[in-house]
Fold:
Amino acid sequence: MQTAKRPAATTDLAADAMLARQAPLHSWPAPPASRAIGRLPQVERGPSVRNSDRFVEHGHRDVFDSELLRVREGVVRMGEMVSVAIDVAVDALARHDVDAAASVVIADRAINAAHADLTNQIITTIATQAPVAGDLRFVLALSHVTYELERIGDHAAGVAKQVAKVGNARTGKAGLDRIGERASAILHGVLLALVDLDADAARTVAAQDDEIDRLYHAYFERVLERMRVEPDWVDVGAHLLFAAKDLERIGDRVTNIAEEVVFLATGEVEDLNA
Structure:
């Protein structure tokens, strides 16, 4: 089996950049990639992210910016946790590694906790800073992103839970591996787009979900055919289809995140599922 090569883990890079207080308001930490850390690109404020006059007039901008920075930092770190969970789950299924699969299920608790913490931060920011107009839309969009990341973590745990059920049975998982690799790749891609607030990159990532759908349907048909001719393999095949569906849903969730990135970058709502 060929394992997809992923860029180096990004948590440390993201943390370093996010803690640099000189970063502009709506810039993000260094994206999840093995590129050198430099000055983050300036992002022109569109209708979705312009300052509210009330904040500027009363001097609350610095407080709001500081709280928003903490939220953005948490979103990037949560995204990295989810990305690792997908990789470990797919690899555990390929190697019949029950211990690695169990670690993904346990790690999902940390992902859920991160989501809860970010939700509380967002609620507190809204309650205490009362953002309006573009600022409020920006905060709410981040809330939507954290929800999608939490659900992707659930799907990764769902894949991991099938490992023990499949056991050491002959699975013929070549197609499943490819679905997992593509799901991991587009999640990484949308995190890059989120870091850079790159609408074009987000649209490109969303378009790649079609390939995941194609792989899933082809895999579904192959497994279904084998279940017809090998009745003793039906139980194994059912668990593999559950895992495949979880991976396919990750692609849909990534598309939802891509739509939020487009909104954050442009202020426009686009349906990237069409």
